Amino acid sequence: MSVDFKSIKLLLLDVDGVMTDGCIIYDDNGGETKAFDVKDGHGLKLIQRAGIQVGIITGRQSAIVNRRAAELGIDLVYQGAKDKLVPFREILRKLALLPEEVAYIGDDIVDVPVLRQVGFAVTVADAMDEVKAYVHLVTKHAGGRGAVREICDLILKESGRWTAATRRYFAD
User: Fold this and answer.
1) Distance of alpha carbon 139 from the chain centroid
2) pTM
3) Using CA of residue 96, residue 17, residue 162, residue 135, what is the dihedral sign?
4) CB–CB of 165/50 below 8 Å?
């Protein structure tokens, strides 16, 4: 794996199948429910604490995604993205970043165009097989089951930012 982890300034995430296990539950009133892993959320807070921004690009529209993003302090939220390269390029312009300064986690073929652009391309263990050919790493964990935390921890450790990001938990 040839990735410059120290240069990563932004982690972008798909939602369904990455931040969640991909299941969508509808109630009788038309409401939608998704389950998010709390460890993934803490990993995202750690990575933000280390100075890495976090953003979401998802093909669906869901109020629950806005709620989770707000809870995690994620301001870059692009929903309803049928062509994920459009918001990806907008984010690069907005933050004045190069593609190689971005890590992206996606799980389906709609994510491949972005995965092919970034400095660190990741997919989850239960991703579509066709996606796995386009990434630097396939996580050990499934989407919605710790895959995001796995990548947050890896980026922090490989870039030398782990100790600073976690110091408060290990201090005497």
Assistant:
1) 12
2) 0.96
3) negative
4) yes
Q: Are 139 and 148 in contact (CB under 8 A)?
A: no
| pLDDT tens-digit readout, 5-40 | 999 999 999 999 999 999 999 999 988 899 999 999
**Type of residue numbered 126:** D
DSSP the chain: ----GGG--EEEE-STTTTS-S--EE-TTS-EE----HHHHHHHHHHHHTT-EEEEE-SS--HHHHHHHHHHT--EEE-S-SSTHHHHHHHHHHHT--GGGEEEE--SGGGHHHHTTSSEEEE-TTS-HHHHTT-SEE-SSPTTTTHHHHHHHHHHHHTT-HHHHHHHHH--
Q: Cβ atoms within 10 A of the Cβ of 137, count? A: 17
> Closest Cα partner for 11 from 108, 154, 112, 146?
154
Q: Which distant-in-sequence residues (6+ apart) come within 8 Å of 28 by Cβ?
A: none
CA distance 58 to 77: 8
| Rounded to 5°, angle at Cα 135 from 129 and 139 | 75
